[in-house]
Amino acid sequence: MAAAARPGPEELALLEKLLGLPKGNKYGVQGERKVPVLQTNNGPGLTGLITIAAHLVKQAKKDQLLGSTAEEKAVVQQWLEYRVTQVDGCSSKEDTRIILKNLNIHLEDKVYLAGNIFTLADVLMYYGLHHVMVDLTVQEKEKYLNVSRWFNHIQHYPGVRQHLSNVIFIKNRLYTNAH
Amino acid sequence: MRLRVAAGGPAALKVLAAAGAAAAPVRLVWGGPLEQPLAPLSPPWTPALELDSGTVLFSPNAICQFFFLARGEEPTDLTNQWLEWEATELQPAASAALYAQLVHGRKGLEAVEVLGKLLVHIELNLSRRGTAYLAGDTKSVADVVVWGTLFPVLQDETSLPSELQVLRTWFQSMTLSEACRKAADSVLMPKALLEFKSYLQKQPPPCLAMERATSNEPEEEEGSEPALTEEEITAAVDAWARGVAALPKPWQPQKPVLPVEGMRNVLITSALPYVNNVPHLGNIIGCVLSADTFARYCRLRNWNTLYVCGTDEYGTATETKAVEEGLTPQEICNKYNAIHTDIYRWFDISFDYFGRTTTPYQTMIAQDIFQRLLARGFLLQDTVEQLQCEDCQRFLADRFVEGTCPFCSYEEARGDQCDKCGKLINAVELKNPQCKLCRGVPVVKPTQHLFLDLPKLEEQLEPWLEQSWATGDWTANARYITRSWIRDGLKPRCITRDLKWGTPVPLDGFRDKVFYVWFDAPIGYLSITANYTDQWERWWKNPQQVELYNFMAKDNVPFHSVIFPCSLLGADDNYTLVNHLIATEYLNYEDGKFSKSRGVGVFGDMAKDTGIPADIWRFYLLYLRPEGQDSAFSWSDLMLKNNSELLNNLGNFINRAGMFVCKFFGGTVPDMVLTPDDKRLLARVTLELHQYHQLLEKVRIRDALRCILSISRHGNQYIQVNEPWKRIKGDEKDRQRAGTVTGVAVNMASMLAVMLQPYMPSVSLAIQGQLCIPPDCFVLSHNFTCTLPPGHRVGTVSPLFQKLEHDQIEALRKRFGGGQPEDLAVEPQAKQTPPASVTLMAPGDPELIQELTEEVAKQGNHVRQLKANKAEKAQVDTEVAKLLELKKQLALAEGKSPEVLVPKGKRKK
Fold first, then answer.
1. Do B80 and A54 touch (CB under 8 A)?
2. A89 vs B59, B209, B223: nearest CB
3. Residue B237 CA: distances (Å) to CA of B678, B683, B774, B787
4. Residues 219..248 of B with a Cβ closer than 8 Å to A: which?
5. Mutating which of A12, A25, A29, A32 best tests the B interface, going by the most B Cβ atoms within 10 A?
6. Does the beta carbon of A54 lie under 8 angstroms from any beta carbon of chain B?
7. Which chain B residue is nearest to residue A88, measuring alpha carbons?
8. Which intervals hold domain WHEP-TRS (chain B) (predicted)?
9. What is the pLDDT of residues B416-463, one digit of tens each?
10. Which of B877, B903, B908, B893 is nearest to B324 (CA)?
11. What is the CA radius of gyration of chain B?
């Protein structure tokens, strides 16, 4: 079976490595949805994937990954939220189809989710969609062409993919009349 | 930047409040609910912020965040955490609560219930940090976002549980802040809320992440289940130990069943099936089977229950059918009433009484209601232009006219209603009307008729509806259909018809007319009860003591929610009016509709010929009961559900539990020593049982069935983990453990037998017999208790279900898939047509061709003769149909395509 990043601690471990942080953070999970919790030495700890991820980014002093201007920051926030509410919440093939369709529309004129800058939103969306993309047929990959282009780009971004399986995309199109 | 919001939309509140709190210079654009979504990725009703750069933000939280960022307030770990919590935990629960309030009419604390744990979470965080606001001592984006989601549900702090003191204070101070107050005033206008409500009503109910996890994914790990509290476990163990004493005594009502002072008296009706149609599976699940399941449940709850139904027998269709078959209308009714009775008996429908509408009581009660309406001035007289077919020499009843729908231009609209757009039609408004019998063009003739003055009754109807909706369970579709009916405006409605077969109108000038079937038919509920007991008025004129449930498919809603209540309100005789109106959506067959004429689908009388037991049919129909949305019968799914849910899950568990008692303990239930794991299982099963009750009390029959299956899943897991078949061979301790597990499992099986009774009565009885469950345990309470104590002897245990094989199912699919040579609509004459086997022969069989050619010639002569003798149009038509059928057979035998022979006018699209 292809290695997949399960939402939560595993994904945060990947992120830590990408950010170049030393290992040592302890994670737990909480509730039915297995929300990740970061245990800290002082205080009650942090709960939630986005919250912890943003915390790690700041810890690694790579704040640019959260966007620089107010607008970029809000856009990054929006896609992180989309990741945890829509992508993680999808329970059927139909939900997945809608998400891919929406992302495909959004990415039509963009390199990254937030436009022209690589951000945390791209990283977490990549981790969150990996198990979906692995299962797509060649035809589906072509149908969601913009998502495929973006995904292929992110998986080759230095340090992002790590041990996750490489999803293969075919360069020449096979189903030209599909669009 | 432009902020586009839809008034009434719940998320509009937080973005406006955030804009106000952060003093963001936005230009507001109000979007209507009916417009396109404001941003491509957002559903209608969510706001969108268009930034000057052209970027559109569609997430309400990101919009709020942006306003605060723009004035230099950076997010912190804490604000991020609140925002994430709000998006993933609070919002889904708040939407569910809002839906419950607006659509189901839940009030106050009951609607807030789903928010329980989340409110406590806020309370704890505020009190632990000791700060005035969520993320510190100043107001932040977190406060606005959380408040904005809570406010539409709570409205003010008084709907918060009083023990959440800190939360109340925080909520109140937020509500009083200028930005929030202003936002609330501009967004939550009553009118806007109403619009939002009608939008919500068209949406499926939101499901909480929690529920979703349990329904769609098999539970992999223990951790994914809701945690049990210590109290729940203790209570479950107590109830278990009390044994049969924890159950109420089953109550046997006197016959005839009559309301009893101080008891819950439940009167259940299912829509009266029209007599000369054989009901199909969709009809069966739509009313009689759903009502039966609920009635059985009520009886198991010791509620004093009466379930009545019967055939609706008056009307033109019966008259015509009688002519066709050469019988009197009454003979036709007798014949078909027997067919209905047989079908429902086969399906094990537990009517207290199954009657009919053609009885003296019907005439008496209908005429009484009529006289009372007349005396109180609720009837109008008017001249009606009505379609008369000159060839057939009769006024045409609505259903005997077909034409083009004046609203949607559907070409096969019936005279009373369009099947496509569902609107009611006045027959004379049909475009290109055609007499359904002779295909002639009818002419419009004036005639006198009586009308029920619905506009005048509306002022009585509305307060009654409001009250019934507030206190009763009406399905969402029933509310929606009723509301749209009233919104379109009520018009006087004709209650008389120019027919003979009906209840005579007792008024001079109208004595040759009868009541329109929809004025008459619901009165059948009363008259059928009257035929059951002469004390029928104790059920039907006793709203103080009786709770009335009406079951039906959604097409019947307006007659039960508007027209019939208006008749009874107008008659003003303290009638029992419907408290709970339970309407199903439609059941389709495979990928299409059931069609009698095309022979598509399974009809009531054929179900028993499939060799599949009635209980399996009941189970599958109830499993896919069209609750909330249409569903489809599918053969392969039936096989799958039978083999997986019944055979492998439920049947397997009950059989194993019983077999272990027999094989390992000589048929005697062993001693049980409960471990903490067992106790948790008891609590888990109790939770499922509570859920089962909660759902059935709301008549969510399909969903409650899942609880039964889920208990047996727990049971299978329990047996699998504890492996009693291995432990029985071990030491003393192991053998004791095997005994405990077997004992708990067989008691679960015993309770499942009772829970299953409303769904599968024969299987339930079989389990009762196999396990020798005492009759006193056949009652439902909220406790899972030990009904088969150590020492109890079980009987002979045998498998409950049979596997359905692929070949068998494929054969059935083919058999009921339509395209049969016999047209079922002309069944009575079918004997004269050549045997069905002809189509199985190879094309070109000379003997067959010869035989059919002769038949065709003979039938052709017969038809010509009939026409020459000016025989009844209907008779000619049926003979022509037979001729066409023969020609089709011939074409098939000769290996030609039969299509070309079908006359154009009759071809279905």
1. yes
2. B209
3. 9, 8, 22, 14
4. 223-226
5. A32
6. yes
7. B88
8. 848-904
9. 778 777 777 778 888 888 887 788 888 888 888 999 999 999 999 999
10. B877
11. 32
Q: Residue B477: which CATH number?
A: 3.40.50.620
> For residues B62 and A81, is the Cβ–Cβ distance under 8 A?
yes
SS3 annotation, B456-473 = HHHHHHHHHHHHHHHHCC
Could you tell me if B656 and B745 are in contact, meaning their C-beta atoms sit under 8 angstroms apart?
A: yes
pLDDT digits (tens, 9 = 90+) for B223-273: 345 677 888 899 999 999 999 988 999 988 999 999 999 999 999 999 999
Question: Is there a single domain that holds both residue B260 and residue B170?
Answer: no
Of B69, B91, B223, the CB nearest to A74: B69
Among A32, A78, A102, select the one facing B224 at the smallest CB separation.
A32
**Domain range holding B666?**
647-793
Name, in order, each residue with C-beta under 8 angstroms of B839's C-beta and a sequence gap of 6 or more.
B821, B889, B892
End residue of a domain, out of B562, B584, B606: B584
- Domain boundary assignment for chain A: 8-156
Q: How many residue contacts between A and B have a Cβ separation below 8 Å?
A: 95
Contacts of A74 in chain B (CB under 8 A): 57, 62-63, 65-66, 69
Give the pLDDT mean for B352-376.
96
Q: Which of A70, A84, A102 sits opposite B87 (nearest CB)?
A: A84
Torsion sign over Cα B298, B300, B303, B308: positive
Question: Is the reported ipTM for this assembly greater than 0.90?
Answer: yes
So what's the pLDDT on residue B362?
96
State the nearest Cα–Cα gap between B125 and chain A, in angstroms.
10
Contact A92 B69 (CB under 8 A): no
Number of domains in chain B: 4
> In this structure, are B695 and B546 located in the same domain?
no
Residue that terminates a domain, selected from B529, B552, B584? B584
Provide the shortest C-alpha distance from residue A10 to chain B (in Å): 18
Can you give the CATH number for the domain in which B42 is found? 1.20.1050.10
Residue B719 counted as domain residue: yes
Q: What is the pLDDT of residues B319-337, one digit of tens each?
A: 878 888 889 999 999 999 9
Say if residue B775 is in the same domain as residue B651. yes
> How far does the CA of residue A77 sit from the closest CA of chain B (Å)?
6
Rounded CA separation B717/B219 (Å) = 11
For residues B276 and B158, membership in a common domain is answered with no
Same domain, B184 and B264: no
DSSP letters for B639-701:
HHHIIIIIIIIIIHHHHHHHHHHHHHHTTBPPP----HHHHHHHHHHHHHHHHHHHHHHTT-H
Inter-chain residue contact A74 with B81, CB threshold 8 Å: no
Angle at B705 between CA B704 and CA B706, to 5 degrees: 90
Considering the domain architecture, whether residues B129 and B264 belong to the same structural domain is answered as no
Min Cα separation A173/chain B (Å): 27
Is residue B463 located within the same domain as residue B339? yes
- In chain B, the residue whose alpha carbon lies closest to the alpha carbon of A101 is B41
Q: Answer whether B539 touches A (CB < 8 Å).
A: no
Any idea what the CATH number is for the domain that residue B763 is in? 1.10.730.10
Q: Which residue has the higher pLDDT, B234 or B886?
A: B234
Cα–Cα dist A32/B342, whole Å: 49
Q: Which two tokens stand for residue B237?
A: 């163990």
Q: At what angle do helices B701-722 and B652-665 cross, to 10 degrees?
A: 40
CB interface of B with A, residues 117-146, below 8 Å: 128
CATH number for the domain formed by residue range(s) A8-156: 1.20.1050.10
Note whether residue B803 is domain-resident: no
Q: Assess whether B189 and B255 both reside in one domain.
A: no
Report the CATH number at residue B868.
1.10.287
Mean of all residue pLDDT scores within chain B: 84
Position B401 in a domain: no
Minimal-distance CA residue of chain A relative to B209: A89
With respect to residue B197, please indicate whether it lies within any of the assigned structural domains: yes
Residues B479-497 pLDDT 10s: 988 988 888 789 899 899 8
